[in-house]
Structures are given as C-alpha cells and as structure tokens.
Amino acid sequence: MRKTLAPYMLIAPSAVFLALLFLVPLVQTVALGFQRDGGWSLGNFAVMAGDLNFSDAVFNTFRIVLIVVPLQLCLAIGMALMLRHIQRGRDIVLWIWSIPLGISDLAAGLVWLAILNDRGYLNSALYHLGLVSGPQSYLTYETPVALLGAIILAEMWRATAIVLVIIVAGLQLVPKEYAEAAGVFGATPFQIFRRITLPLIKPSIQTALILRTVLAFEMFGIVLALGGRNVPVLVSEAYNWQYANQDYGVAAAYAVVVMVVSLAGTVVYLRVLRTPKEQRT
Amino acid sequence: MTVRRGIFLSGVLVLCAWTLVPIWLITLGAVGGRDAVNAWPKSFGLGQASLDTLASFLRIDGVLASALTSVEVAVLCMIFSIALGAPAGYALARYAFRGATTYRLLILMTRAFPVGILALPLTVGFINLGLYDTALGVALMHTALALPFAVLVSASLFQAIPRELEEAAWVFGCSTFTAFRRVVLPLALPGIAATSIFAFVISWNEVFAASVLTVRHRTLTAYLLAVLSESPLHVQFAGGLMLIVPSVLFIFLVRKHLFSMWGIANR
Amino acid sequence: MADILIDGIRKAFGPVVALEKVELRIADGEFLALLGPSGCGKTTLLRIIAGLETQTEGRILIGGRDVSALPPRSRGLGMVFQNYAVFPHMTVRDNVSFGLRMTGADSARIERQVKRAAGLLHIEPYLDRYPAQLSGGQRQRVAVARALAIEPAVLLMDEPLSNLDALLRLEMRAELKSVLREAGTTTVYVTHDQTEAMGLADRIAVLYAGRIQQLARPAEIYSHPATRFVGGFVGSPPMNFCELEAHGGEVTLGALRLATPHDGPVVMGLRGEDVEEVAPDQGFPLLVTVAEPMGSHTLVTGTLGAHRMRVVVPAARLPQAGETIHLRPLPGRLRWMNAETGAALETV
What we know:
By secondary structure, chain A is an all-alpha fold.
C-alpha cells in the first residue's frame, strides 16, 4: 500500500464535520446536563426527577419501545419470509411495504389522527358496521390505554418498513443453499427457519434492533400529533424544557437520559446478538 | 395447497392494505376540507373533494414559506452529505491507512446515539454564529444525521468497483483523478444518486432538531409541530399529506437501491 | 440403499425447456455421473431428484417409492452442494450430525455415525471447529461427511470438486472414489469435468440441451461416442471430425481409402491419439500449424484440406510448423456419424 496523504485528505472534511456536529454537542450535552447555576451539580437531574411528568415520560417511553420494537421485528421477519414465497408482483409488494420508510413520525401521527379522531374513519367504519352509535374518543387523557394503543399502532405502521428492508437485505446475503441443504437433510420448514435462517440473519437483526431502538427512544412527532401533551415521553419533555421553559439544563438532562438509555440498549444488542468471528460466512 | 395459497395471498393483500389505506384516508382528510373533516359519518370515497382545500392550505400564512425552507434544508443536506461522505467512502474503500478503524468507529458510534437530540446544546452555539433559525444551520444538523449513512454506503459502492478497472485506466495513461472521473464515478453514480435522495428524505422528515433550531424560518415539519394544537384538523391533514407525497415519490425512485444500501449499511 | 428411476421427467421454465422427457434408471449401489456443459440441464435434473425443483412432468422413484410429490426432507437423501453449504454458524460436529438430529436419532447413534463419517473423511481433528476456520478442501470433506453420516439411500453430488484447486481436486477425486466404494451408496454425481466423470463413475449419462445423448460405461463413452456432441465433449483433445463425401461405400483421404457405412455426406470421427505416423504413400497428409510438447506426448494441430485436426504423436517427435506429416488411423478406431443428425452410424 502506498504511503500517501490522500486518504487523510479525503476523510478529513467529514471527520472534522462529525467532530463539530456530533462529538462536540455530545460533550456539550453532558456538560450542560451536569451544570446548574454556574457550577457542576446534579441539580438538573433533581429538577427533572422532581417534575410531575418525569415518571410518566419514562414509563411511557419504555412501554412503547418494549412493545413496539419486538412486535416490529416479528412482523418484519414474517413479511420478509412471505416475500420469498410471492411468485409474481414481488417487486411491487416490496415497494408498497417499504413506502412508510419515507414517512416522518410527525406525518405518521397525522395519518393516524385522521383515522382515530372521534369523527375519524375508524369510527365511521364502525358506525357503518353498526358497532358504534356515534363518535367515540380514543385519543384523550380519559382513554390512556387506547391512546397508547394508537401510538403503538402508528409506530408499527410507520417504522416496520425499515426493519423489513434491513431483514430483506440480510436474507439476500444468505445463499439459498443453506436452507436447501437443511431441507435435504430432513429439517422441516420451521426447523429450517429456527436453526438456519434465523441464526444466519442475526447480524441484520442486530442492526435493525439497534437502529429501531435508538430511533424509538427518540420518538416525538408521532406522540405529539396523537396525544398532544397527554402522553409525555422523554424527548417531548426535553423539547418542552428547552422551548417552553427555556431551561436548557433540564432539557440536556433529559437528553443525557435518552443517550444513556440508547447506548445501553445498543451495548446489550451488541453483546447478546454477537456473532463470533469464526461463525461468520 | 390452494387453500393455503389463498390464505397466504390474502395475508399479503391485508399487509398491502395496512400500508396503503391509511395514506388514502389522510388524503381524503386533506382534500375534503373543513366540511369533510367535521362530517359524520364519513364517506370513504373522494366525494366532493377538490384541490381547493390544498390550495387554500398553501395560502395559510407560513405554510408555503416553511415548505420552501424544508426543500432548501433538504437540498443543502443532500449536497453536504455527498460532498463530505463520498470522498471519505472512497478513502475507506481504496486505502488501508492508520486511523481507518478509528474513523469507522466514529461513524458507527453515531448509530448508538439519537443524533437529533444533539440539536439541544447547539442552540447557543448557533445563536453566536448566526446560524440559529437559518436553513443552513438546520441543514448542518441534518447532515450529521445523514453523513454516516452516506459514508458507509459510498464506501461499499466504491468497494464493489474492481480496483483493476482503475489500475487499467492508470496503465492507459490516466491520472489518478482522471481515472476516478472517467471510470469509477460513472459506475458509482446511480448508487450515489440514490444515497443523496435518501439524505434528502432524512432531512425532509426530521422533526426534533428542526423544531429546536428554528423559530421563524421553520421547516414544514417544525411548522406543523408548532401549530399542532391550534390549527384545525383539515389543515393538519393537508400538512401531513404534503409531508408524505415527496417521500413516497423518492422511495419509489430509489426502490432498486433500497436493499443494496441497507444490505451494505449493516455490515 | 436404493435404485432410482427417472421416469419421463420434463422441466420447463416458462417457455424455456430445460429437460425433455428424461428416462434413466440408476441401479442400487451404482455411481452415475451426469456429465454435460453448463446449461445442459444436469443440475436441474439433480435438483428434481432432490425435490428442490419441481418437475413439469414425470415421476421420480427411489427404491420403488414414488417420491415425486414429496418435499426434500422426506426423500431420505444425502446431498453435497457445489459451494458445500456447510452451515457457518455450527461446528463441524453439529454440521455432520445435522441430518441425524433432524430425524431425531438418539445420541448414541449420532455419536457413532458422526465418528464413522468423520473417520472416513479424516476430519476428526476439526470436529469442534467452525467452518470458517477450515480450508476449502476441509470444508469439502465436512460436506461429504455430513451427507454420509445419515447413511442415505441415495447420495447426490452437485459439482462437489469444482471449487477446489487442481491439485486438491485430483486428490479428493481419488479419495471420494474409495470412500464411496466403501459406503456402497447409490450416487448421482453432476459434473462438467469429463475427467472427473471418467475417473469416478460406473456409468456416465452425457446430457446436452436437456436430452441424454448417451448413457454408457466410461470406456464406451470414450471410444464409441453415440453422437458427434459426445465425441467432441469427452476426451482431451476432443475427437476430430471431418465432413466427407462417400462414393461406392468409401471415402478417399490422402492415400487412404476408408470404408463408410453408406454413400453421400458422412462425418468421420477420429480421436487424436488413434493415429500413427506412416510413410507418405500410406496415410493422409497433415500440414502442421502448431506443435505443443506436453511432456508425455506432443500435441500437433494442423490442417487436412479444409479440416482442422489435433493429433497426438510420441514425445520424441516435434514437427515444425509448415511441415507435413503423414498419418494413418489405427485399425478399428474410426467412427462414422450421420452428417445431418450427428448420430453415430453402425461401423462396418
């Protein structure tokens, strides 16, 4: 390999950029979070934890993430396996299924608002079917379970596509001979899935879970669109402290919590779903 | 066998409907106007829909301006991501150099953090630099989101182009740069175009950082979020539809590259 | 142990016909090679036997049992894939025992048979390694051991040696032959390499354009090709062909008059090594264009009128380009073929 400056000149702009707009704000966030009234302290965290909305925000965030992410993974794997058995029109089905990939969480929230508001399409459909007699509310603080369900539904609708795309891409990297060999040697379709396909797409599952979990902790627009301030989550609280209360310290404390939780999730996935070097293809 | 096939196909259709019907419904909500939104029970056809609703939506103060800001931000983000990301991708693909691993680690680290949330501390710095509440400022933040993706995808795009092609060009008298421009670039261009479109979509859809970093020059997402509690439903639906349409078109454009991009990005 | 009956198997991929009414019976314990160029349908036929591909028409019987509609797992097969398909996330031991575990064998039997298969293929030292830690040749052995461990009634092999380098291939070929003889399993072996087919098989089925061109013992295939295609495909150098015009039951070739099965256009087939150099008045002339010394012999390429020919002469002889040498076919080694269909004609 030639010794040259070229690679350094090529990566330098992006490295500097990421240092300035990723590493620096990362450090700043932590610093901001641990400073209050001009000195180092845990004051921001104390304010945060003492806030009425804090425990709700934590519970809501975790509840949504822990329900949505596993469901999405299962649904996406199911869809990816279905795709393998579609003979004609596979491309168009794949395209339709990946459309939500391009839809922002705010837009997704608005979509489901159109369906689930009290005069929305769900109630209209139920009315036509004779199941309800008039508008029903699902998205108020009086119906917390339905509201949570609506957010989960909207998240499922919007973000399963990214998991699907990653899983399909992973499946494409697995030669079909492995499944064929397993079939020849007596494995049933379920055994093939369980013992061959699933372990071989483990790296893709890992990527999908990391990406989805980090993004799910960041969930924001969808919650505000459907629940307004009735469903506080970590990031919406950070937004409120920053914007409405102009208290950057507490906002940063929330950001630190979100980052720590995301990082912890990533580390867990990296360890649990590790593929040892010798087991790679 | 045919019964099972029937169940299977209806499953596929149900999942297609699950994706498409909500989009259809918000379209109805967006073009139906105030009357349709308040109607009870609603009809599921287009009815007396007209584009007037959408037109009047655009006339609402701030809507058109914020849409244009969104486009501006997204285009800038697209340009920055490729301009910064593609050269780095080329370096990762073609050179073995000290620090390559560290650089890769930096790129992968961005994945473990919710990058959008880093807009919070940037507010102060951006105010001092005059970047706060500007399209450029938001675009820079969005580039931090899209850049790691652009680097990884372009690295594998370049990796997929055999080094021998470039070497052949050198042998036949091309300089390093000419060889790149004439041989590598044309081969990598479709993939790079797809990557840049993806950067556009990432920026177009981003809500949090855009909301935090703007007050008056809002992007469409930031605008919609800000007026969420005070604007009538049909306006919100029109805004939602306006957010969805370009993304769906773009996803259609890059559909061929979608899987290679993600297949690559998870290696 | 079982015989295989391939009964009228036809396979079409849309408008493209891959196999045309193939009939084949493979005896119990026989080693049959399916030989042909790429795209001839040999792999498709093997995959139909395995159940990995569905035939458009016809039946497959294994040991007298119609398996045509059965999934691969119910056919009782062992198979070795071209790229081995050794599961990367399992140890060698788990790979070899995979088939036994899937069929619910008890652990004593699993251990016994893994030991036996691993012993046959000399992979005992690697049983606890992962495939990524093995060389290509070792992975190949694992693939074969995995197939033999289940003691299959039928063993299918799809170009198992094509990913190995030349030296290793030669070594594995000899070893496969002895291992399989010991196992006594009915084997169908797909290859495009004629030397592999010749060296390993009891019988060879030469496939071309979805049809079996010839089914015979290797020596027969070599010396009595049933069609022009077989003669040209089997043997190195391939058989030489000359389109000639016969009159009065013979053709004239240089100083030679050779008896033909009939008058009119006819194709003469002659293997490169089935000639001897003779005096000018006793043979046909060959104008040498290239002579390549191969060590054990010299390969001479030349022209006889409009025909190109490649012949083998002793290593000591190295004719120069431009020189004319005179050759005579060895007695009984000439083959005649129909000029239109390429089918071999009865030798007079």
